[in-house]
Amino acid sequence: MSIPSVVRGGVFVAVLVTLPMLGLQHWFLNLLVFVLMYATMSSSWNLVGGFAGYPSLGHAGFFGIGAYTLALIFKDQVLATGYEPFLLLPLVGLVGALVGWPIALISMRTRADVFAIVTITFLFVVQTLAFNLHSLTGGSQGTALPIPPFSAAGFELPFYYVMVGLLVFTMGLTFATMRSKLGLSLVSIRADEDKARGVGVRVIGVKVLAFSVSVGITSMVGAVWAYYESFIYPQFAVDPLITIAMVLMTFLGGRGTLWGPVLGAVILESGQQLLTYQLGAVQLYLIAYALIFLVIILLLPRGILPTIEDRLRLRRRRRRTAAAAALPGGPPSSNVADAASMLGRGAT
Amino acid sequence: MHALVQGVILGILTGGVYALMASGQTLIFGIMKVVNLAQGAMVIMAAYLAYQLFTTFGVDPFLAIPITTILMFGLGVGVELLFLRPLRREDKSELSLLVTFAVALLIEGVLSVTWGTTYRSINAGYANSSWTLGRYQITVVRFWAFVLSLVALGLLFWLLNRTRFGRAVRATVQNPESARLLGVEAQWVSALGFGLGAATAAAAGSVYGLLYPFTPGSHYDLISRLLSIVVLGGLGSVGGAVVAGVIVSTSSAVVAATISPAWSEMTFFIVLILVLLIRPRGLFGSVNRGAI
Q1: Residue A308 covered by a domain
Q2: Which of A58, A90, A124, B237 has the fewest CB within 10 Å, making it most exposed?
Q3: How many domains does one find in chain A?
Q4: Residue B288 — very low, low, confident or very high, per pLDDT cuts 50/70/90?
């Protein structure tokens, strides 16, 4: 672990922890809670969509599963302290991961397009179930969660800190993955799955593990969201736009990087709030989202951070080559640096 | 038993329309290896075009099909040229999924802004009439929808099997590299193929508008249905899509008639999972996905 990444991580956590002490207004704290939720979800999507190159379109289904799992656990209960739902988040994550495991096992036997087909179909199945299983979900009437007994003055704070915890957990997991054999396996799957299998990567196991962990985290975020909203409806708990947001944020920041999804979430979620105020109508917001998406994929397919990093490395290399050319022996090889950059071990 | 037979009749008649939508989608996959998530949105868009032609000019939705087909063909070619062609080859299959999803959202957004989000339906004069055959009802609309789907599918097969363009398409599906070596202009086959896929969506869209009320969000209902059909038939196999369209539609209609309409949606997903467990390449898919 190099010093700069420790410093960077420490500063990030310190800023997140101290931010609410600046006496922020409610609307801003509320915005931050949502930014943190999307940052966590994009980071979790990145684990499977970014590293392994399997673009899941069904993560919103797991968000909904998390939301309804918490709603079912606390049905008709009155909370004493208000922290009970947070303590049960690991359980919710486990439920999500357990649902995701067989889905991944079935759909990841073949290639990425079948995987995408299964995950998007799964999303609509979960939505249909949320509408139809009246006894469990209340159908389109929605279902209520216990009201959080927090004071109005600091209502957002518990949610904020829980989300900071989840984000740091997810980023820590991403960081550990990137530094481990697991991360290398995932990246090798994205690069060339057949070759990865050929050199002995346990392809199926690695993919299924990444997917289960990823959807487990997403379900936990869904649970926090449900508790924060206190009343959930199928069309918002299982919303294809949530999937799109996760994918979009990861792509914007840079998939397969540690900070990319977070950067994407900060930009897009604040932008989205602004758009909602400015444009008002949901339909225009849909068009704007789709257009941003198309522009990013066509003009910036690798995302902001990898693009910047490439520029920097190119400049460094040029400088180094110029320096080396002055010496006898020619320029040094840069293969090692290139291989390392595939894992995003450079500036990101 | 009565409900069962009625369900089968209904399913087969509706299956023609699904077969038409899915054949376009599987054709696009066969040519370009792109899963077109915007197929459903294009169907709904065509339904709105037919709706507008009907309410403003009184054009019967069946007669509107040539117009909508040409418009949607143009749109399909445009989408391919603008959004899919620029993608880099190494991550094309991954990015194309997201691009077509974005196109679907874009279409949904444009439709919502233009027509609003309330349900629309095309109420042609014959919309509610039906024939009685023994103890079974056959609605006139569904019957003609079925006939029209057969005609459109016949045209598609004629185009694929009897024309020069069709030969180029089939060659590309079987082996893109060899086709290119033999002088097939793969770029144009892709653009025209995507247009053709959109055209089948247009033909199906007019009919869909007659059969069901729709909103801009209706394409979400179609995505999972079409994808299950395409996977069951075998990705890239047009004939497979036709057979699978009828099978899936019939089983879902039977579930709706015998168990509950709410659960018929689940039929699609169960079919999909069963196919992937038992025969991942689908009914008619070849191992290297070359069939058409």
Answers
A1: no
A2: A90
A3: 1
A4: low
Domain that holds residue A140: 24-271
Compute φ and ψ for A39, nearest 5 degrees: -65, -40
Cβ-defined contact of B37 to A287 (cutoff 8 Å): no
Question: At A250, which CATH number?
Answer: 1.10.3470
The count of C-alpha atoms lying within 13 angstroms of the C-alpha of B10, restricted to the half-sphere facing its C-beta, is 18
For residue A227, the SS3 value is helix
Asked if B112 and A283 count as a contact pair (C-beta separation under 8 A), the reply is yes
CB-CB under 8 Å, B86 with A113: no
Nearest CA in chain B to A132: B262
User: With bands split at pLDDT 50, 70 and 90, how would you rate the model's confidence at A337?
Assistant: very low
Mean pLDDT within A204-229: 95
Q: How far apart are CA B226 and CA B126, in angstroms?
A: 27
What's the CATH fold of domain B2-278?
ABC transporter involved in vitamin B12 uptake, BtuC (1.10.3470)
ipTM score of complex: 0.85
Q: What residues of chain A have any CB closer than 8 angstroms to a CB in chain B?
A: 53, 55, 57, 106-107, 109-114, 116-118, 120-122, 124-125, 127-129, 131-132, 240, 244, 247, 251, 281-287, 289-291, 293-294, 297-298, 301
What are the structural domain ranges in chain B?
2-278
**Residue range A2-22: mean pLDDT, rounded:** 85
- Interchain pair A114, B231: CB under 8 A: yes
A277: in domain: no
